[in-house]
């Protein structure tokens, strides 16, 4: 029977060496066919050598261990390596996915190795259940990240490009070809039209209150209604006031 | 989500206030009618009552409507509006009173001076008294609301400061960092004992500064730089030549007191979000220098930079919150793109003393 093969993907050299020497001591028949320093290298190695096992650090430059696993879980058995009680560990536990905690301790590694040996020995290297387990974990983690909203606005100021956190922004207001970005300390112009911003901003934080105005609701101090059915918003910490046009007044109906 | 639902219900309150004002005015009107009857003015209480209600309520309605229309106009305009409301209200109210009481309309032009002028005089006199009453009521409630608002503001900022402080304490040592570093030490014990010892020493240096109890309130630039150095030394062993760093602090600033955990989170961001995710790694530069009345600290990396949906870690938001509660508008945090790559974070905090030269 041919030897079992594995690759190790870990960005820190010392930890890579350590895992290799531990593995060699506990499982001398295992042939380590390659070592990768980042996710992309790991992917290449797996495609080239088709190893039985891939030890993947979760946090790696380029591609994370998770991202690598997503692409190769069908062709080889993945063992995740992580330093701390990552949010993933519980998921691994639940789905019986193999993982190692750093620092890798000999007894714990021996357990994992025994488990790997018994499964690799069987005719099918990857059982459908374990594959499903890995896929469920990955899907769960992908879902956890959620939709990504705009968090930073790039503005030109003097010669430099500043990054302004959306939490700092009181409101956006369209003006001609530009959009004005108002913070507590200043006002900037950006080229992105307001209708694009509306789609990218987190609707939990930013509300459109007018055809050309989007306000950060955390900055609202008060809202009052005029006789014409429009609303007037006063803001915290800055003297500006904003108009809520009639179609958006329903947002401020009594809760 | 809104703390000021009270103010959001302004409209409802407006309607309620409208009715309340009318009721109070009606009460005043009754008192005026009683008063005039007591002075044996007019043709008995019933007629006096009808006239004073008609005139008073007309004036009141007119003034309230005027306020609603003018809303944010100048005080002078409001004054004229009130004067006109009193005149028109008296005229309209008198006419209504005549009709309700079933008296001849011509009657209001009789008397010496004409009844209409008597009514006008009384309308303006009593109207002014009642308006003054409402005006001072309004003032009192405004002052009260203002005090309430200020109290809420103060409590809010105290709460924020406390929360930010708590988060800072919790974030002092990141477990991921500790476990990863210990893993490295453990793996070095077998292969390179000298390096393992050096790394343990760095870790002790780092922990000693970050766990020192006095640091919870205030620290010095020197201490913060020492902590950053220890942290970066550890990372240099872990990342190898993927990490370079440079620290430049002005000599005169070494003992300057600054709040803790301002520099460290920026250094951690630079390494974790800037350099570690890149295959090539890069350079972290920390500088501290004085500008007029301020200390300026910068942390620059040549790493990955930020994409617009990227998370910059909790550090930056926490720094902003704490600086805001400590110094208000006197301090600031700026994040910029570094060229050709990476990020530059700048913190400025107030500082009285300086040694004569600025950077």
Descriptors:
heterodimer; A: 255 residues; alpha/beta; Rossmann fold; OB fold (Dihydrolipoamide Acetyltransferase, E2P); five-stranded parallel beta sheet; five-stranded antiparallel beta sheet; 7 helices; B: 359 residues; alpha+beta; Heat Shock Protein 90; five-stranded mixed beta sheet; two-stranded antiparallel sheet; disordered N terminus
In short:
The complex is a heterodimer of chains A (255) and B (359). By secondary structure, chain A is of the alpha/beta class.
Provide structural commentary.
By secondary structure, chain A is of the alpha/beta class. Chain A has two domains: 5-145, Rossmann fold; 152-252, OB fold (Dihydrolipoamide Acetyltransferase, E2P), CATH 2.40.50.1020. Chain A contains seven helices and 15 strands. Chain A has helices spanning 13-26, 39-49, 65-72, 87-95, 106-121, 128-145, 194-200, and strands spanning 5-9, 31-36, 53-57, 77-82, 99-101, 152-157, 160-165, 169-175, 178-183, 187-190, 206-210, 213-216, 220-225, 231-235, 241-244. Chain A has a five-stranded parallel beta sheet with strand order 2-1-3-4-5, sandwiched between helices. In chain A, strands 10-9-8-12-11 form a five-stranded antiparallel beta sheet, with no helix packed on it. Chain A has a three-stranded antiparallel beta sheet with strand order 13-14-15, with no helix packed on it. In chain A, helix 2 packs parallel to helix 3 (65-72) and helix 4 (87-95) packs antiparallel against helix 6 (128-145). The longest helix of chain A is centred in the middle third of the chain and has 18 residues, at 128-145. The radius of gyration of chain A is 27 Å and the shape is elongated. The model of chain A has no long low-confidence stretch (mean pLDDT 85). Chain B is α+β, with helices and mostly antiparallel strands. Chain B folds into two domains: 5-168, no CATH class; 174-350, Heat Shock Protein 90, CATH 3.30.565.10. In chain B, 62% of the residues lie in helices and 12% in strands. Chain B has helices at residues 5-8, 10-38, 45-70, 75-101, 115-170, 175-191, 193-211, 221-239, 263-275, 315-327, and strands spanning 219-220, 243-249, 257-258, 282-291, 294-301, 332-337, 343-350. In chain B, the strands form two sheets. In chain B, strands 2-4-5-7-6 form a five-stranded mixed beta sheet, covered by helices on one side. In chain B, a hairpin with a 5-residue loop joins strand 6 (332-337) and strand 7. In chain B, helix 3 packs antiparallel against helix 4 (75-101), helix 5 crosses helix 10 (315-327) and helix 7 packs antiparallel against helix 8.
